[in-house]
Amino acid sequence: MTGTFWALVPAIVAIALALISKEVYSSLFLGIVIGGIFWAIDAGAGFTGFMTHVFSDGFAGSLADAYNVGILVFLVILGAMVALMNKAGGSAAFGRWAKAHIKSKVGAQFATILLGILIFIDDYFNCLTVGSVMKPVTDKYGVSKEKLAYLIDSTAAPVCIIAPVSSWAAAVAGFVTEGEKGIDLFCKAIPFNFYAIMTLIMMAAMVFMKFEYGTMSKYEKALEMMSDVTTEEEAASTSKGKVIDLVLPVLVLIILCVLGLIYSGGFFDSESDSYLLFQDAFSNADASIGLMYGSFGALVLTIIFYLCRKVLSFKDSIACIPEGFKAMVPAILILTLAWTLKGMTDSLGAKDYVAALVEGSAAGLKMFLPAIIFVIACLLSFATGTSWGTFGILIPICIAAFPEGAIRIVSISACMAGAVCGDHCSPISDTTIMASAGAQCNHVNHVSSQLPYAITCAIFSFVAYLVAGLTLSLGIVASGIISWIVGLAVMFGALIFLKKRQAKAAA
Q1: Which is it for the CA torsion 153, 158, 163, 168, positive or negative?
Q2: How buried is residue 47: exposed, middle or buried, by Cβ count under 10 Å (0-12/13-18/19+)?
C-alpha cells in the first residue's frame, strides 16, 4: 500500500465521510485509523505497532512539533484578543460605527473583501483577524456565517499566493532551488495564477450581482428577513467601549506580527555582517514563531491599553484568556486531527506516489501540462489538506522538467494555483478550519457551502490553463492575454447563466 494510490485513501475516506455525515471529528479520526491500519499491514507491526503509530507517532508527534505548537499558541492568543475586544465593547462599538457608514448588505461584504485583501501577510492571521473585525458588521446586515466564512477563506490563501511580501511567497521561494531567483520566479508567475485572481473577481462579481447558488443560497435566504437585534456580545460588553478599542488592538496586532515574522527571518540579527533585506527576511521567516511573538506582544499591549482606558479591570482581562481558549477548542481539535491524518498519509508515501505520477506524465504532454499540473495539485492539496506540502512536491518537479522558458513559468503558476484551490476546498485544510473559526461557523457547513463556488472557479481556471498551454507558441504575453480573455468570458457567461437560472427557480 505504501507509495501507491492506497496512500491517499485515508484522506479521501475522511473527506467523504465528513461531507456525507456532516460530522468532522469522527470522520477525521476514522481516516487516521485507516491510515494506521494500512501502515501496520505494510510494516508487519501488528496491533502494538498500529497503536504506537497512531497515538505516539501520530497525535503526540503532531502536538510535539514546534511549528504546530506555535500555530496553536497563536490561535489561543487570537481567541483571547477577540474575547477581550468583545468584553471591552470594541466589537459592538465598531458594529455601531459600521452601521452608520456601511449602508447595505453589499457594502458589508465588500468591506470584508477589502479588509481581507489588505491583510495579505499571512493566511492564518488573515482568517482570524478579518473574522473578528467584520462579524459584528455582517451580523448587522444579515450576512450568514457561511457566507462570511467563504469571504474570509477566499481572501486568505488566494490573496497570500499573489502577494510578493507574504509568508506564502517566502515558502514558494524556498522550494525553488535557485537561490535568489525564487522570488523573481514567484512574481513572474503571478499573472498566470488564474485560480487565485479569478476567485477574487468571482467573489466580488457575485456580491455585486446579488445572488448565490448551491448550499450557500439556503443559508443566505434564512437570514434575508433578519432584523436589527442586539447581539450577545453587545449585551455582555461594557457601554464604555469605543471604535478605538477594536481598531487599535488590530493595528498593533498587524504591526507586531509583521515585525515578528521578519524578526524570525533574521531582519534584526545584529550578529550578521549586514542587515538582511526585508524580502530576504520574509523568505527566511518562520510563520509559527513570528506570529506567536507578534500576537503575544499584542495581547499584553491590549490588556495594558484597556487598563489605561479603564474599560476593563485586570481581573476581567485575564478572565478573557480562558474564554478565548474555549472558543478556539473546536478549531484546535480539528487542526490536531488534520495534522495527524497528514502524518498518516506521509508515512504511507503519498508524496512519492504523486511525484512519480507527475514525472511519468510530463513527457509528450507539454501543451497540456499546465492544465494537468493544475488538476494534480488540486487533488493532492485537497486530499492532504496542505498547499505548502503540494508546493514542496510539485515545484521541484516543474523546475527539473522545464529549466527555462514560458512553459516553466506557467507550470509553476499552475502548481501554486492548484495547491490553493485544493486547500480552499479541503475540509482538513488548516486555512479552511481557521476561516470557520474566524466566522464562528460550523465547519462542515462552511465546506459544503464553499465547495460549489470553489469547484466552479476551478473549472474556469482549468480552461484558462488549457488555453495558456495551447497558445504558448505565440509568446508568453500573447498567451496570457488570450488565456485571460477566454477565462473571464467563460466566468461571466457562467455567472449570468447561473443568476438567470436562480431567478427562474425562485419565480
Answers
A1: positive
A2: exposed
Sign of CA dihedral 30, 35, 36, 37: positive
- Indicate the burial class of 225 (C-beta count within 10 angstroms; 0-12, 13-18, 19 or more): exposed
Please give the backbone phi and psi of residue 407, each rounded to the nearest 5 degrees, phi first: -60, -30
Q: How far apart are CA 352 and CA 302, in angstroms?
A: 46
Residue 241 grid coordinates? 467601549
CA–CA dist 163, 165 (Å, integer): 5
In the block, residue with C-alpha cell 449570468: 496
Q: What is the DSSP string of 416-430?
A: HHHHHHHHHH-TT-H
Q: What is the pLDDT along the chain (507 residues), one digit of tens a residue?
A: 787 888 888 878 887 787 677 677 788 899 899 999 999 998 888 888 899 999 998 889 888 888 788 878 887 887 888 788 888 888 778 767 777 788 888 888 998 898 888 777 667 767 777 887 788 788 878 888 899 999 999 988 888 888 776 657 666 765 665 444 566 777 788 899 999 999 999 999 999 988 888 888 888 777 655 544 444 444 444 457 788 888 888 888 878 888 887 888 777 775 554 455 666 676 676 777 887 888 899 999 999 999 999 899 999 999 989 988 887 787 788 778 878 887 888 888 876 776 676 655 555 566 788 888 898 888 888 877 777 767 766 776 677 666 667 788 888 899 889 989 988 888 888 788 888 888 888 888 899 899 999 999 999 999 999 999 888 888 888 988 999 999 999 999 999 998 888 877 766
In whole angstroms, give the CA distance from residue 177 to residue 198.
29
Instruction: Name the grid cell of 223.
Output: 437570514
Q: Are 315 and 87 within 8 A, CB to CB?
A: no
Pull the grid cell for residue 66. 514546534
